[in-house]
Amino acid sequence: xxxxxxxxxxxxxxxxxxxxxxxxxxxxxxxxxxxxxxxxxxxxxxxxxxxxxxxxxxxxxxxxxxxxxxxxxxxxxxxxxxxxxxxxxxxxxxxxxxxxxxxxxxxxxxxxxxxxxxxxxxxxxxxxxxxxxxxxxxxxxxxxxxxxxxxxxxxxxxxxxxxxxxxxxxxxxxxxxxxxxxxxxxxxxxxxxxxxxxxxxxxxxxxxxxxxxxxxxxxxxxxxxxxxxxxxxxxxxxxxxxxxxxxxxxxxxxxxxxxxxxxxxxxxxxxxxxxxxxxx
Length: 280
Hints:
Elements: H1 6-17, E1 32-39, E2 46-51, E3 55-56, E4 59-60, E5 66-67, E6 74-77, E7 80-83, E8 85-86, E9 92-94, E10 107-114, E11 117-124, E12 130-134, E13 138-141, H2 147-152, E14 161-166, E15 173-179, E16 201-203, E17 211-214, E18 224-232, H3 235-244, E19 262-279
Parallel strand pairs: 1-19, 13-19
Antiparallel strand pairs: 1-2, 2-5, 2-9, 3-4, 6-7, 6-10, 8-9, 10-11, 12-14, 14-17, 15-16, 15-18, 18-19
């Protein structure tokens, strides 16, 4: 699961915190950077650990990202420890057992030791989105094969798929729309796309609304079955997102909830609906 393009946010966090002009950041020290996401009802396999690159004598010691592959990473729930194992992918950890269940309204702690210092963080899994509904599970759209057909397509922008859920307390959510077909056919063949066969995916910014209107060529660009996942998110995720949107001239450090480190550890819950885009 790719939650809100996690890796790009993660790399942005590193670059901001490695910047020479960011205050209160000792560039001569290496710090662990954690990007860890756990999801209600899903296996734990989205824990990434890297480290900042020291800045010495006016230049960085080396380019690129350094991974931490040998940490003893522990996820704790109800005083029970679960050891995470490194995956083949650099800096990524997962839990190999079946006895760990991620549940809503439960607290989890992530911890490991780095250079003799305890790195830790806690998060609470938010409630599931309530009463998620979809207006229609099928939508008929013509394929666009010419500029004239593209000009005539404006009538179909009113053919939307509407997603709704309860949000009486103005909680935050974000939504991911993804095409599930093996070889998806594009709606608009006149638009140059480097890889037509790549599955289209659209991720919204966090929202406090209780609905999302899906529009052709904006939220979906291919025929076939689509999965819509509505994620309920925590405050720490919102604070990180907001800090990433700050003006580049604002030198405030991005939010972190990692004790003795940088980055984020947070939890999500979700619900799913599906709709099919059929060629007219």
